[in-house]
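We now fix the convention by which a protein and its fold are recorded. The integers have meaning only within a learned vocabulary of local backbone shapes. A record is reproduced here so that you can trace the correspondence yourselves:
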Amino acid sequence: MPFLTGEHVRSPELTALTGLPFDDDDEVLRAAIDDASVPALLMSMVHMTGDPGILDRLPRPYMLIAMDLQGGMSEPDKQVVRDKAFEVAREYRDRGCPPPFVPDEHQLRVMLDVITGGQVGSELIEYIAADLRVTDADQNGPPLASTARQRADFPVLVIGCGEAGLLAGIKLKAAGLPFTIVEKQSGVGGTWLANRYPGCRVDIASQYYTYSFEPTDHWEHHYATQPEILRYLRDVMDRHGIADHVRFDTEVVGARWDELSATWRVRVRTGGGAVEELTARALICAVGQFSNPVIPDIDGADTFEGPTCHTADWDDTLDLTGRRVAVIGAGASGFQLVPAIAGTAAHVDVYQRTPQWMAPNVHYHEAVSDGARWATRHLPYYGRWLRFVSWWPIADALDEQITIDPDWDTGGLSVSAGNQMIRDMFIAWMQAFTDDEDLLAKVTPKYPPMGKRTLQDDGTWLRTLQRDDVELINDGIAAITADGVTDVHGVHRRADVLVWATGFDVNHQLGPIDIRGRDGLSLNEVWGDAAYAYLGMTVTGFPNFYCMFGPGTNAVNGASLIYNSECQMRYILGCIDMIIASGAAAAEPRAEVCRDYDRRSQQRLQTMVYAHPAVTSSYYKNSTGELPTLFAWRIADYWKWTRYPDPADYQLETAAPQEVS
């Protein structure tokens, strides 16, 4: 494993990732350290002193806890660490901020043992080291075997310019591959441009919901709001000069594989309605799983006479002041929307099909202080460790809690001892905000924790539901009328505005796009209600075709889509390089490889909480109860499997492409 050495860590690229030199006065240092994450401070001190032994002389985190940046440490212990960190940072500054110490593999193991309480197994070291940037494994992706001249003759077309499509453009440009991104919206952002309803924000910590090569110390909130994320994506696009490669306000209608020329012929429709055909050697579909909003089939829905919209297509002209609002759905978007509009609207009725589990998270609406941003910008490797503190407790560390113990039986309330502990914690959190037994009964799910995507809560949701001008309704909807909603008990509640907060059709992510591979094979027909792809990216019968955030890649609890996208784009670039370097015209996964991966994925998912029979209304389940959208393993496994493609997994078509007249 190529750990970095001292002469590497002052490169401009890595310095921006791991800490900029500083000469600020003691007052600035003290303020930053007082606001910083203590576990991340402990690790940064090793990088500043070059002495891993310093960790033996200081208090340690009790354990990294989801949604807690302080590792469960007591206030006196945190103060001891902060005082020492102030001394270390001041001395480091006075030495002129020399290149920070980079641990070797053994030293990194010691550091990880301290920060996680011994949770990290040896098989995870290389994976974590790459994200921390103490190795260069993820810095530039796999070495390319093809030449720059060869790559210049291999045009690529990308569908969508959300976080994944933007990333594809950045990596394709860096590799010298010509490319065009086709985006139906008017700008970059994808779901973060479409979803702009009040209260919209990410439910993954900002430091993790960030390109690993484009960190930022400018996040305004620990969990960034939609405007912040959109601004970040626009800034990244500008820094990498991607806009000139994007055709905005243009929609991909369909694409077909041309066998004779070994190209994709892609039909696009411009904003003016004109249809054109573009040609590419490879096609990357980066539309993701959150691109097709769902509006349920409810009797009378088309008769409502007031304003109506879906959260994924918010009406920016909508004024809710003094109006009665009916919100259909209390999942992630309704959970964010309702507190944001309560108090502006005269009254809000929330129609909930099933309650969602809420994870305690005191930082969910919290702003990031100036001192904490300074620490991220300047303290060596502090930002990288803060990122680790943000993701480790909610991703790979939870593998046991989401696995069904066949000997555990609580009537569907939990799936294991660890899962029951999470349930108890979640319920205790809800009870801290209300003693209303009727309300607690409404908001307490009857399925095991983690069975669906867990929402983040700092108490805002329950406080909102206890307002006099908000009502949570658990009864099903019988009909929608011209002036309101009627429930199954015949109770009619008047509404001036109707908002659909009803999510997306994740099992049919292509929507109306008609992708046709060899012999006119339709991808929508092949997938049906159970989409699949090898590693979530490649499909037999569809040469030189790649998905990002494709089937089987949604790590529903805890993972960052941006991190997964980086894994995917690294692999896709490796596939393209494999084709070019081998002189092949095209490649597609072998049928047996694709089938075996899908079989193993579905088998493993059936052992996980998402498949539990008590999880009855999950939109991740298709009509037969399978879970085609979800990722079945650890993120560490995905990182390992996507480092580079194995040529043995692919059938390469070696015939040279012919020009089509």
